[in-house]
TrEMBL record:
Keyword tRNA processing: no
Name the UniProt record assigns to this protein: Undecaprenyl-phosphate galactose phosphotransferase
Source species: Acetonema longum DSM 6540
Protein keywords: Membrane, Transferase, Transmembrane, Transmembrane helix
GO molecular function per UniProt: transferase activity
Amino acid sequence: MWSAFYMREFIILYLFPGLLSYPVPNYFYYITPMVFMGFLLYERMYARRLPFWKNIELVFKVCSYSVVLIIGVFFVTGIMKDMSRILVALVWVTSFTYLVVTQYALKRLLLYFGLWQKPVVIVGAGKTAELLVQAFADDPGMGYKVAGVIEDHYQERPLAHQYPLWGSFSDVKEAVARSGVQDVMVAAPGLAREQLLDLVYKIQPHVSNLIVVPNLFGIPLANLEAETVANQQALLLRIKNNLARGYNRLFKYTFDIISTILGGLIVLPVAGIIAISIYIDSPGPIFLSIVGWV
């Protein structure tokens, strides 16, 4: 918020001296952090291990919903007439930037000291497990560290030779206990239903978190939501077409416009320096125009 205030007072007003300077009420500095913290807690941003781009998506949502709620509260209470709209917009920009940068830097720092890594045992060492390991390597910010694998056909699985082999499917309960790991991922989508259920029932009582990777290859998962029907013990997967909704299209267009404006503001000074350099080096038109015969 202080950054947004100083940006408006010393940069925006300098560039556009005709704008009025609005005083910032003291309660603005209390309400805004509380709203942001509420949405961050609601999305469990500091308790979930998410891929980098998924994390940015949630930060974007948190900042957008927070600013919309703040505007709504200030509008209903009549405070908005005394507030700078530019300041509110800058609060969104600075909050989004700071949250993304600080989360990334903090995770990197914790990874450096070994405090963010969570050991995980993978049940299965086939192609699915290899994809998981590659995903963890590509996005270390998720913080998963493979502590070993459990596999029946370990001779045929390259992954079983790269990490400790804790046992086979038949003694999976003892293997998990030997590993001492509280997070297990079952990455064997080729198993029959009965075999998968047997593994789950054997592992679940002995770990804190059990993740099952289903056989959904080829299905678009970008906008997938999971629901459970407890009485029927059924899992429902909802694949949403977000752009089919008008408000999502408006949200996307707004994001595109804001990103384009911010990108233009960043590129404009660089382009100006390049243009001046070209003019100094070669007096004349900056842009090359050629008139020729076809």
